């Protein structure tokens, strides 16, 4: 027979590190070819001219230039119109 009381089990001991998402370079900043401008989950920001969208929705610069962000109205599949930020490199 045990002489120590039973210690309970814990279920919530797992934790994952943050994904470091967000805007890496803001409007007006210089950018080089291939640099990451925005890391995101889903299309919260749209890729415009001078940028490319990778498979995990990261926006990269296609060429050297200056980052520019502007709000645009975008029509969704349902027909509703919503505002989204468009990222371009000029």
In short:
Helices cover 0% and strands 41% of the residues. It has strands spanning 22-23, 30-31, 36-39, 45-47, 51-53, 59-61, 65-75, 81-89. The mean pLDDT is 92.
List the helices and strands and how they pair.
Layout lengths: L21 E2 L6 E2 L4 E4 L5 E3 L3 E3 L5 E3 L3 E11 L5 E9 L1
Parallel strand pairs: 4-8
Antiparallel strand pairs: 1-3, 2-7, 3-6, 5-6, 7-8
Q: Can you describe this structure?
A:
The chain is mainly beta and 90 residues long. The chain has one domain (22-89): RNA polymerase II/Efflux pump adaptor protein, barrel-sandwich hybrid domain (OB fold (Dihydrolipoamide Acetyltransferase, E2P), Beta Barrel), CATH 2.40.50.100. The chain is 0% helix and 41% strand. The chain has no helices and eight strands. A four-stranded antiparallel sheet has the order 1-3-6-5, with no helix packed on it. Strands 2-7-8-4 form a four-stranded mixed sheet, with no helix packed on it. The radius of gyration is 22 Å and the shape is elongated.
Order of H and E elements = EEEEEEEE
Annotation field: number of helices: 0
Query: How confident is the prediction overall: mean pLDDT?
Result: 92
Shape by Cα distribution: elongated
Biggest sheet: strands side by side, in what order?
1-3-6-5
Q: What is Rg?
A: 22 Å
Q: Which residues sit in consecutive blocks of at least 5 with pLDDT less than 50?
A: none
The structural class is mainly beta
**Domains (count):** 1
Per CATH, the architecture is Beta Barrel
CATH hierarchy class name: Mainly Beta
For CATH, the homologous superfamily is named as: RNA polymerase II/Efflux pump adaptor protein, barrel-sandwich hybrid domain
For the sheet with most strands, the description reads:
4 strands, antiparallel
Count the beta strands. Answer: 8
Return the CATH topology: OB fold (Dihydrolipoamide Acetyltransferase, E2P)
In whole angstroms, the N-to-C terminal distance is: 76 Å
Relative strand content: 35-45%
Q: What helical percentage do the residues reach?
A: under 10%
